Amino acid sequence: MDKLKGRDLLSLANLNSEELKEILQLAAQLKSGEINLKCNKVLGLLFSKASTRTRVSFTVAMYQLGGQVIDLNPNVTQVSRGESLEDTARVLDGYLDILAIRTFEQKDLESFANYAKIPVINALTDREHPCQILADLLTVQENFGKLDGITLSYFGDGNNVANSLLLGCAMVGINVRIATPENYLPNKEIVEQAKTIANGKSEVLVTQDPQVAVKDSQVLYTDVWASMGQEQEANNRIPIFQPYQVNEKLVESAADDVIILHCLPAHRDEEITDAVIEGKKSLVWEQAENRMHAQKALLISILGSD
Ligand code: CP
Ligand code: NVA
C-alpha cells in the first residue's frame, strides 16, 4: 500500500509502470469499497491557478481517508507578497505531511520539492498534469477491462495534459497518438521519454493529421485550446485548432466502441461539440469523479495507511 512512501510525484515519469498499475488497482479497490483505508494526515494545497476538480477531489479524498486539508491560496499567504518558494517550502515542511502544488513553471515545482522534505505532488504545471492521467487511465480500465493494447488519440494543444498522457499511456501499453497543429507540439523531451518507455511494444505517434490519429481509435481525448495563462491567445488560436475539434464527424471515423474523454473544464463548440460531450459515448463525468478515487490511492501510496 505504501510503495511510494515519502516520494514526490512531480512528473508521471517519477513512477515506473508497475507502480502506476498498482495505484490504479488500489484506486479501483477503494472505489468499489473492496478495501477501506484510513490516513490521518494533513495535506496542503498551494494553488497559483484556478481549480475546481483538483481542489475538491483532493479535499474530499483526504476527508474520506480521515485526514485534513489546508487550502493555501497564495493570495491569503505571504507567497503573494513575495516570500520566496524556498522559504515557504521549508516552513510548510514543519506543519504539513504532504503538499500538492499547482503552478506555472515545472522548475518552480521542482525547486519547491528540493527545499521541502515532505512529499510534493504536481497538481498541474504548464508541463504536466499527472494526477489527471491517473483518473483517465482508471476510466479507460473500467470501461474496457484492460489498458494494454487500447488506442487513445488526443486532439488539440500539445499541452500539460497531452504530455502526461504520452507518459502514462506508454507506461501501461496504450497506443497513444497526439494530433496537434505544427506549432503546438507536445514537449519533445517527453515524446522521446514516452518512446523509450514504450520500447516499440506500443505506438507513440505525434501527427498533424487528425484523420491519421482517429483511425480505429477507442478513446478520443481533448482539452482546451488555450490553457490557463494563455488566455490572451485564445481568439487567435480558434482558426488554427478548428481542424482538431472533437465533433460527430471525427467520432464516426473512430472505432465502434470509442469513448470520449475530456479533463474539463470544457469550452463547448470549441475543442469539443456540445453533442459529443453530452453524447452516449462521453464518459467525462465518470472521468471527473475518478480524480477523487485515483488521488485517494496516490495519497495512500505516498503516505501509507494508519
Ligand atoms: N481537470 C482539472 O484539473 O480540473 P480543475 O482545473 O478544475 O482542477
Ligand atoms: N490544459 C489545461 C488543463 C486544465 C485542467 C490548463 O492547463 O489550463
Automatic annotation (TrEMBL):
<dbReference type="InterPro" id="IPR006130">
    <property type="entry name" value="Asp/Orn_carbamoylTrfase"/>
</dbReference>
<comment type="pathway">
    <text>Amino-acid biosynthesis; L-arginine biosynthesis; L-arginine from L-ornithine and carbamoyl phosphate: step 1/3.</text>
</comment>
<dbReference type="GO" id="GO:0005737">
    <property type="term" value="C:cytoplasm"/>
</dbReference>
<feature type="binding site">
    <location>
        <position position="102"/>
    </location>
    <ligand>
        <name>carbamoyl phosphate</name>
    </ligand>
</feature>
<feature type="binding site">
    <location>
        <position position="78"/>
    </location>
    <ligand>
        <name>carbamoyl phosphate</name>
    </ligand>
</feature>
<feature type="binding site">
    <location>
        <begin position="51"/>
        <end position="54"/>
    </location>
    <ligand>
        <name>carbamoyl phosphate</name>
    </ligand>
</feature>
<dbReference type="InterPro" id="IPR036901">
    <property type="entry name" value="Asp/Orn_carbamoylTrfase_sf"/>
</dbReference>
<feature type="binding site">
    <location>
        <position position="160"/>
    </location>
    <ligand>
        <name>L-ornithine</name>
    </ligand>
</feature>
<feature type="domain" description="Aspartate/ornithine carbamoyltransferase Asp/Orn-binding">
    <location>
        <begin position="148"/>
        <end position="301"/>
    </location>
</feature>
<dbReference type="Pfam" id="PF02729">
    <property type="entry name" value="OTCace_N"/>
</dbReference>
<keyword id="KW-0808">Transferase</keyword>
<protein>
    <recommendedName>
        <fullName>Ornithine carbamoyltransferase</fullName>
        <ecNumber>2.1.3.3</ecNumber>
    </recommendedName>
</protein>
<dbReference type="Pfam" id="PF00185">
    <property type="entry name" value="OTCace"/>
</dbReference>
<feature type="binding site">
    <location>
        <begin position="227"/>
        <end position="228"/>
    </location>
    <ligand>
        <name>L-ornithine</name>
    </ligand>
</feature>
<dbReference type="InterPro" id="IPR006132">
    <property type="entry name" value="Asp/Orn_carbamoyltranf_P-bd"/>
</dbReference>
<keyword id="KW-0028">Amino-acid biosynthesis</keyword>
<feature type="binding site">
    <location>
        <position position="291"/>
    </location>
    <ligand>
        <name>carbamoyl phosphate</name>
    </ligand>
</feature>
<dbReference type="InterPro" id="IPR006131">
    <property type="entry name" value="Asp_carbamoyltransf_Asp/Orn-bd"/>
</dbReference>
<dbReference type="GO" id="GO:0019240">
    <property type="term" value="P:citrulline biosynthetic process"/>
</dbReference>
<dbReference type="GO" id="GO:0004585">
    <property type="term" value="F:ornithine carbamoyltransferase activity"/>
</dbReference>
<feature type="binding site">
    <location>
        <position position="223"/>
    </location>
    <ligand>
        <name>L-ornithine</name>
    </ligand>
</feature>
<feature type="binding site">
    <location>
        <begin position="263"/>
        <end position="264"/>
    </location>
    <ligand>
        <name>carbamoyl phosphate</name>
    </ligand>
</feature>
<dbReference type="GO" id="GO:0042450">
    <property type="term" value="P:L-arginine biosynthetic process via ornithine"/>
</dbReference>
<comment type="similarity">
    <text>Belongs to the aspartate/ornithine carbamoyltransferase superfamily. OTCase family.</text>
</comment>
<keyword id="KW-0963">Cytoplasm</keyword>
<keyword id="KW-0055">Arginine biosynthesis</keyword>
<dbReference type="GO" id="GO:0016597">
    <property type="term" value="F:amino acid binding"/>
</dbReference>
<dbReference type="InterPro" id="IPR024904">
    <property type="entry name" value="OTCase_ArgI"/>
</dbReference>
<feature type="domain" description="Aspartate/ornithine carbamoyltransferase carbamoyl-P binding">
    <location>
        <begin position="7"/>
        <end position="142"/>
    </location>
</feature>
<feature type="binding site">
    <location>
        <begin position="129"/>
        <end position="132"/>
    </location>
    <ligand>
        <name>carbamoyl phosphate</name>
    </ligand>
</feature>
<dbReference type="InterPro" id="IPR002292">
    <property type="entry name" value="Orn/put_carbamltrans"/>
</dbReference>
